[in-house]
Amino acid sequence: MKKVILSIMLAASVLTACSDAYEAGDPTQRSDENIVFANANEIARGVIGLYSNFNIEGEINFVSYFTDELGVGITNGGQGINDGSYTFQITPATGFVTSHWGTNMNTINRVNRMLNRVDELLKNATKPEDITSLNNSKASLLTFRAYAHYRLFAYYTPNYTNPNGLSVIKFDFLQTDDYNRLEARSTVAEIVKFIEDDISEARSLGFAPSDNTELSESFLDAILVKLYSMTENYTGLEEAFDRLNGAHSVGTSLDHLLMFDDESSAKFGNPDIILRLERRVNQGGGVAGAWYSERVARESRMIYMEVGRSLYNELDKLEPEMQGEPFVGGNRYDTRFLSTILATSVVATNYSSLTQDQYKLQDILLVGKYKGRTQAPLQNDVYAFRFTDILLSLAEKRASEGKLTGAHAIGDFSNVESIIYNIRVNRNANFEMSEPLSMPTNFSSIQQAYARILEERRVEFAFEGHRYLDMRRLGVKAGSQGFVRDAMDCASTGACRLEPNSFKLVFPIPSTEMISNNKMVQNPGY
Amino acid sequence: MRSKFTWILTLFFALMMQVGFAQKQVTGVVKTQDGDPIPGATVMLVGTNLGTDTDEEGKYTLILKKGDKIKVVYEGFRPTTATVSDATVLNVTLVEEDITELKGIVVDTYRTVSKEQSAVAASTITSKTIEGRPNASFIQTLQGQVPGLNISTGSGQPGSNNTAVILRGLGSISGSVEPLYVIDGVPMSSDRFRSLNPNDIESINVLKDAGATAIYGNRGANGVIVITTKTASFDSALSVKYVGTTSLSVLQDNNYKLFNGPGYKSFVNQAKKDYPNATFSAYSAAQTRDMTDFNWVDEFFRDAISQSHTLSFSVGSKNLSSFTSVGYADFEGILKNTDLKRFNFRSNLNGKNNSGRLTFGTNVSANFSKSSLVQGNGTAFLNDNYFMGAVRSLPYLTPAEYEGTYESADAMLDKYGNSAMPYLLLDKRRTNGFSQDEFKMLVNGNINYKLNDDFTVGTQIGADYQTITQDTYYTPDSWNARYGMPADQEFFGIVSGINEDRVIINATTSLKWNKTFNEKHTFNAGAYLEYIKAHFKNSSFGREGFDPIFFTPGTTAGAIADSEENDYYVPTAGLTVDNAGLFSYFATAAYDFDRRYGLDATVRRDASYRFTADNRWGTFWSVAGRWNISNEAFMSESVFNNLKLRGSYGKTGNQDILGTGIFGASGLFNTLYSTGLGYKEQSALLISNLPNRNLQWEVITQSNIGLDFGVWNDRLRGSVDVYRKQTDDLYLPRQISAINAATSINSNFGSLKNEGVELIVAGDVIRNENTRLTINVNGSYNKNVVLDLPNEEGYYWQPGSLAGHREGGKVNELYLVEFAGIDPKDGNMMFYDKNGNITYEPNDNDRKWTGKSAIPTYQGGFGLDLEHKGWFLNANFTYALDVWRYDNDYFFLTAPTYIKVANMSSDVLDYWTPTNTDASFPKLAGSNFSYASGTDFYVKEASYLRLRYVSVGYNFKKKDLAFMKLSGLRVYAQGENLHTWSKWKGWDAESNRSVDLSQYPTPKTFSVGVEVQF
């Protein structure tokens, strides 16, 4: 029996020595926020981390497929067609519907956590440089929050102009791990107010000086202009516009061309650019991968999608003298045409009388806006805001005021026609000519003026991710037919047109949110 | 074990002699069917504890009277009863046990119990089923052998661990559903068996109910598979055995009805006539005249030759016994360039002191395997997936056009666009390599010491050590390595590698007590401590850009140094570590009354590193009882030689809540941060994990009632089990509002239930001196029901996926829009919306729960076993019913977007035209076909019945071998997967996936084998 007792004692001593078994794990994990975000420098690194969510590429991809920007490419292997992107399918489970919601909410959640930490650090900060750095970081954080709310507002709000209508969640609280918390949709007025407040606080804190690749005061005003163009707060729009005007301009035609040349350094000083998202070789999504698999070129054998024929025809109208002429070796002067259509494209002037298979092989219109870099063939910088966009937003105000036409001169933004004139002068690459290559003529009614703005936006911002919201905001006002594809581009899919009043121009609330949040109300039509 | 038994019996025997109860002396010889004597068999007088062991000539002597029944027992043979007549000689012939035999012993890591005294649900498979089969992994051999054990292999790669082994239904949704594997007391760190030699296995015990598995506590929730390797017995002469097989594997057939070259062209030309608006063009007259036809399946697959050799030695002296085996095997895969080669060594050593009080043993096995594997299966990239290339390559293209260079592959892409698939794949095959070398060592040592008559103290320490070296390369002139590369990049080629070490150490210390009171009350009890610690280390590197002169696969020879102008040639490197551990103490108790009633109980406390201090410890337990009805006095005249009712109830845990194995998924209870490369290549800080503070074990509660029976001296035998298994605290993705920075988080919420019936029956239709014919049948029914889910709606579905879970439905139930046919008017596809009306544009609201899933409701096997004068024939069928999967290959083979791009199924000839309105496929242009992929249009039944295994052979009689000095010779021919009856169109109805796209099918294999014993 003594041996038995000895054995038990031995076992008991082993027992106490064995806690290392369950105190194991991955030794590299860090879980304490006070260690990770310990000082102003690490907060700044956290802000750098938030830029990863700043993704325009996904929006460009979605919008180019869903609208009338693209046509089916010569080597399409079902991309965008089998999954319904090109055929106007949109559901609460559509990839971009879900990711756009998720990414922006993720941004705000992280902003709120960091704001909380910044305020703790500010309480104890004594060194002036630390306080400045923390304030600058805080300004960036508030800007990210305002921008994310604006992006959600733009896509998920059914009616921008009804202050009491439903918008998105007003996300002004610290949310860590109370997963049962559910929030209802706030009203349009509440969201607008919240964005305005964040912007005004960010403005008061100030940003560290930088080039056009980082958040700035201009970026704040750009958000306001875009927001007010939706809510039709035209007073606020013009005030914000005035702050931007001067410091920025639509740039010259050369600026415009070089903006889409990623080997060029001219982008740094381009006054049209309000925020450029710089993509280094090993970073960023690579926007051209939405249409090409290998590189942006004619010799890229995998061309999933091409420029839609209806868009090409609009670009072709910009230079009436050349209209209908095949595009060969850069024989155009309008920089929108030159930047949008790749120089190695092949144009069949008689395209509409070709058979489908001839059309596929003989009319090859390649997207040229993102040419890639030598070292990263599918990668490009992308633009969050351009002044031209802001200026055309002012044009929407002018149209609403009935200021449709009149004297036009450089720097005169008093009527719609003159604004378009200002843009077109600076998109003419024929330096022997100081006038636009052409001007639209019909400004006979407010509706016509809206139609001209929508047309101008279509050619100016092709493949920049604007077309969907532009149609949403202006389509009905402009009496537009909506997204209209050329008959040759839709014969095989039957997806030829989407009306401007379609419910599909407002995103559905994603399935994940609808399932998890019983306070959420779905948008009409879904 | 045997010697202890003899000692006890002798004592009683002596006592009885004194009383003078004896009537006459009966002697006899116990022999095998072949007439060989069996030494050491136990001969017992039925209904008493009287008995003896046979001597070296197989002889026994007992004092018996007429009418007494004796029962002869010897391991590996079926226990046999004989009745004493007037004669004084009573010879007994024992028949070898086969796989359907339910006698024998039940082994777990901690206890060994005779089948009679076992109260748990467990199935035993012996070496006879496993040995000499041409499967690289023994686990495939178990298919259809054990009721309730569903085995579906997802890859035909030799030795692949892509095999789903599910016992009694899916017991978890996110967590591990696979049983725990224990080899000679060492728990395996992963389910990778490619390096192990199946011929070393003596027996496999499949432990099913809580009574059997609760002793494994935290890891027993999905059942336990206990593997015991061969050992030698003490006092035995040297025996040398050779087992060799050679086999030929071929691809199974598919039913896609692919077009041949001319057929494809005429289909396209007709389609173009019917649809002038379609974007593809017709073939020109010259093209149509060219009747070239090439079968790309034959280009990518081959008839594979494999061989395996095992040589083993067993010998035992008085105090030491040893078993040693060496093996070599070379398995070719049916896909060209895939194979597995391995070398095995095993040494099992057992020793004891003269008194038998001290016993010890060591098991050492060292195994090395090299495999060439395939990458890219399951993907839809035309330059990556050979399995897709085999079916989808255009049948009028031929390999001759590809010249075996990068330039040639590139020219093919220019010429053929998306149709260049076969050429890009030929280039990949020429230039790509992916291989893994694995060294695996399993070591175990144990010592047991009998402190006195009642107490035994023991300890065992085991280690599973595994190191894997993985090499991947693309040569510098590989098309894949050069595609999409920057214009100014000069050097190409990719080499990457991974080195992974993992070791898992377990130590168990036990104190056992065993005592019998008043001859009828036997108690067994044990107390145990178990410590498990595991370490993992992974290092990886990658380089790009090589000088082709020096490039050598598996090395970085010729690597170009990084320069300032660009970053093409920067090497990458990584090193990760992980640690895991478990600590447990537990106890068992068993009580037997007169071999008629038994009661077992276990309780176990476990601590896991995965949970916070509050939830770290879990308590798991079980109780089990039995009633050996056939041992009751009132049953003495019945036809039942065995009738036992048993029942168990208990609780086990599953700590592997994400199914990532012993490592991984740690720290989930914490908010975690990480560093990364952020905007403009600046270093950034990110949040990387949202915490689940309440993380805890998944708990499985299982009840089981079973009946074992044997009638007419076991001529008909079997068991029936009924069980209910409920999993609570399921660790499930719960959809959460996006305000949480994520849209779902896993948490312990929810429950599911598996209920089922299992049956195994074997009957000897013929049983005489020369012939034995046994028919065996086993089957199971399992009903899998999700009881409770975290969402208020009562279902979970990840948007965009084809399957989900709902309360009242199955786990991973297909959730799809229902296809309603082709509209005869315009050739569009029709679907049912949520109200049952026809829609042409279905959306997610129109999805329905189909009641279908990829896990079978019914599965099992049946077969026959015939022996006649040394000849033998075994045949085994397996089946799985109520299996539904999404055939993604069929989508690609029928989608109109691929006309003139890739080969198609000729089923598509039945497309809609104004004159073919009753079509099975929609019109070829301008239809709403893009909706088809989210619907049940491509869901196909994958139930099957398969002739899994046939073996024919001859077992030479010992006396015929004497002149060759052999003690055994057996030759046989066998076939695996010979024929499958199924509606599934692909090569292989068997799969462990819900959605199948171009995967490695399991082959059909023919083999011949020989077993020689010296």
Quick overview of this protein structure:
Chain A has 526 residues and is mostly helical.
What does this 3D model show about the protein?
The complex is a heterodimer of chains A (526) and B (1014). By secondary structure, chain A is mainly alpha-helical. Chain A has 19 helices and 6 strands. Chain A has a two-stranded antiparallel ribbon. A two-stranded antiparallel ribbon of chain A has the order 2-4. In chain A, helix 6 runs parallel beside helix 8 (217-231) and helix 8 packs antiparallel against helix 9 (234-244). The termini of chain A are far apart. The relative contact order of chain A is 0.12. The mean pLDDT of chain A is 92. Chain B contains 13 helices and 52 strands. In chain B, a hairpin with a 6-residue loop joins strand 5 (69-73) and strand 6 (80-83). The radius of gyration of chain B is 32 Å and the shape is globular. Chain B starts with a helix and ends with a strand. Classes of the chains: A mainly alpha (526), B mainly beta (1014). Chains A and B meet through helix 1, helix 3, helix 5, helix 13 and helix 19 of A and strand 25, strand 26, strand 30, strand 31 and strand 35 of B.
Name its key features.
heterodimer, A: 526 residues, mainly alpha, two-stranded antiparallel ribbon, 19 helices, 6 strands, 4% strand, globular, B: 1014 residues, mainly beta, 22-stranded antiparallel barrel, disordered N terminus
